[in-house]
Amino acid sequence: MENRVVLAALGTGFTFLMTVLGAAVVFLFRKEIGEKIQKCFLGFAAGVMMAASVWSLLLPAIEEAEKAAGIAWLPAAGGFLAGGLFLYGIDFLLCRQEIFIKIQRNKGQEKTQTEPEKEKEKKRLVLMVSAVTLHNIPEGMAVGLAFALAAQKPEDTGTMAAAFALAAGIGIQNLPEGSALSLPLCQAGFEKKKAFLTGSLSGIVEPVFGIGVTLLAEVIRPFMPWLLSLAAGAMIYVVAQELIPQAKGKEEGHMGTLGVMTGFLIMMVLDVAFG
Within a domain: residue 244? Predict the structure, then answer.
């Protein structure tokens, strides 16, 4: 028991560290980020999240369901729908809060032109952080389960090597994910330290759930396809609802589209090469 917990802590600790390194990219930008670059960053985040949803979440969910001799598409479809509805619920509550704030402001006659935009930006950021954090939970659990399985078969060196390879692959994938969160936060007006901290903390759930799942490996494993696809549904909701519209904006231009293509390409290559 102790051995597999230590291994899971090391594996998920590495994936968390890579998220921190990705979020640290925000410190490379010394000047205020221009509008075109902002759109590119938002598009990049959308592309990364789209690719991660497919290769890191939905495809593994289908594979896990097939191994369990179940209906392969059912957990993927059901979890995907649940994830989208979960983020829709958060979005709905945030919209209700926004309406309440507007009513209170109108009563007090304290209107400004910038506050509505700030509230929309805040809502988008809450959804984005929620989706990325949800995405990191099943990834941490996958690493924890891999090391729990390896600890049960100490004589099988291949199983242990596969667990380390999985941790390395997810860690490398976390590099662009960390930056995809911290950079939009910075362009939204967050101080660089706060943007870095928020981007980093989105990955802290990986060691927490990775270690936790090693203690409950037999109980959690059957639900992994649902958890993976739930995270995918949440991420795609944010991409479609917030990121791509923000990346395109009202003006003509292709920076947002180029960002989406670049983010998707990079994440796809990392997922296939190290997945």
Answer: yes
User: Alpha carbon of 55 to those of 58, 89, 213, 261, 271: distances in Å?
Assistant: 6, 26, 22, 16, 6
At what angle are helices 59-67 and 224-238 packed, to 10 degrees?
160
Task: Profile the chain (275 residues) by mean pLDDT over runs of 10 residues.
Answer: 81 92 85 71 84 85 86 92 88 66 54 57 76 82 79 73 79 81 81 90 90 81 85 86 79 81 88 74
Structure tokens at 35: 């509008």
pLDDT of residue 119: 65
Contact 26, 199 (CB under 8 A): yes
The answer to whether 18 touches 226, Cβ cutoff 8 Å, is no
Which structural domain, as residue segments, surrounds residue 99?
2-24+38-107+120-274
Answer whether residue 10 is part of any domain: yes
**pLDDT score at 262:** 92
Nearest to 260 by CA among 39, 46, 3, 18: 46
Assigned domain for 72 exists: yes
Using the Cα atoms of residue 227, residue 275, residue 70 and residue 74 in order, give the sign of their dihedral: positive
> Domain tally for the chain?
1
Provide the pLDDT for residue 113.
45
Please state, in angstroms and rounded to a whole number, the distance separating the CA atoms of residues 99 and 108.
14
